[in-house]
Amino acid sequence: MNYTFTLRTIYPYLGELWQAAAVTLWLSSLAIVLSIALGAGIAVLRRSRLRLLRVLGAVYVEIMRNTPLLVILYVVYFAAPAIGIRLSSFVAALLGLTLNSAGYMAEILRAGLIAVAPGQFEAAQSQGMTGWQVFRHVVFPQVFRTIYAPLGNQVIAVILASSLASAVAVEDVASWMQTVGSTSFRFFETFVIAAIVYLVLCQTVNIARLLIGRWLFRQGATR
Amino acid sequence: MIAYLPLMLRAAGTTLWLSWLAMLIGAFGGTLLALVHMQRIAPFRWLAIAYMEFFRSVPILIVMFFAYYGVPLVLGLDLSPFAAATLALALHASATMSEVVRAGIGSVGHGQWEAAQAAGFTWLQTMRHIIAPQALRVVLPPSIGVFITTLKESSLASIIGYIELTRTGLLVRDSTGGGFAPLLALGVLYFLINYAISQIGAALERRFQTGSRIETVGAMA
Q: How much is the ipTM here?
């Protein structure tokens, strides 16, 4: 128990930390945006008139929600070369994260779509609204209100999950902690620093969504 | 590949054991944390909130790295990969479970506490005979979800060298010439286990018909 906490040995590695933090931020931002797009497609698929498409969407969601992200990452990382595609670590990690997160996004968005009563589409149409107007003024405000909180949770989940990219050789914050820790034998310090980076990222999202939510959902603010 | 299937099934057992143990410790820890969180004394409450926010905002992988590589350096206490993985998984599960338990206890009407007090029940008796049985109905279905998350997270133990299902799949892949089949088998095994468990959860939810679903944070793993 005579371990002394010292950051002096870590100083030389701080430059790499900024790079690693940028990788974590960039990877998770891309994965969030892409998985919202893919998730929206799947959510729509699950409301299709064709039974086959509905089943396909449900199967996708169940597979993604019941398989560990790490296994999905390995499958993408090792399978791509097997079928002749060369993916960089970053692209493989992005693909795995996006595919996995889309399964959760699809469920979040589906819950949002369910919240809009079918009669409202007809009512809006009978008012002579165009498809875009129905989406912009009727569907979107209600869907957004329903998905706002779970969407925030999922954004945080993706940031945390992006740490697994280090398992397929992406040089992110988790990978920084391990490499610097094992070269300097300062695992406590690298852990504290890496934890602070993730804490700051996640709590920024957390606090921002509280403040934005309070501002957006003031009484009658969505009209 | 087929020859390795019994090996992978046994490894699936190891994964189940690891996640079950972590979940058990996590459920106890989470209940304790929920009770601390409900105390009137503010510093206790802050401590519980700080604990929860910390484990909600830090990836379990780096907690596992620290438990395995850092704890021996800092405390001079060597943890095996199994112990380090169990510790990290349990710490993370307890943070989520405390929220689930708190919501469960909160779902029991305040009038019942007062009624029990009026009937001369002590705090422990109220908890044991009145609150816990009712809270359990609300707590159980989302606990299944937390268990599935823990089971998926247990795959991270492979990164610190514990030979569970994922690590076994990778080893089988190495010894069969780097094929694709072991990874697919890995995915299928995890899916079957988790899907079966999630069906149990759905059945429990139907049985108890708890309208209030508890949102758990960070279910992606």
A: 0.90
Q: What is the pTM of this model?
A: 0.90
B136 contact A CB<8A: no
pLDDT tens for B46-68 read 999 999 999 999 999 999 999 99
Q: Is 1.10.3720.10 the CATH classification of the domain at A8-216?
A: yes
As for how many domains chain B has, the answer is: 1
Q: B147 and chain A: CB distance < 8 Å anywhere?
A: no
Asked whether the beta carbons of residue B70 and residue A70 sit closer than 8 angstroms, the reply is: no
Tens digit of each residue's pLDDT (9 = 90 or more) over A150-183: 999 999 999 999 999 999 999 999 999 999 998 8
Domain membership of residue B145 (yes or no) is: yes
Asked if the structure places residue B219 within a domain, the reply is: no
What was the pLDDT predicted at A28? 97
Cross-chain residue pair B66–A154, CB shorter than 8 Å: no
Domain spans of chain A? 8-216
Q: Is B41 on the interface with A (CB under 8 A)?
A: no
Confidence band of B163 (pLDDT split at 50, 70, 90) = very high
The DSSP line for chain A is -------GGGGGGHHHHHHHHHHHHHHHHHHHHHHHHHHHHHHHHTT-SSHHHHHHHHHHHHHHHHS-HHHHHHHHHHHHHHTT----HHHHHHHHHHHHHHHHHHHHHHHHHHTS-HHHHHHHHHTT--HHHIIIIIIHHHHHHHHHHHHHHHHHHHHHHGGGGGGGT--SHHHHHHHHHHHHS-HHHHHHHHHHHHHHHHHHHHHHHHHHHHHHTSTTTT-
Q: Is B173 on the interface with A (CB under 8 A)?
A: yes
Q: Which domain holds residue B37?
A: 2-208
Chain-chain contact of A68 with B173 (C-beta, under 8 angstroms): no
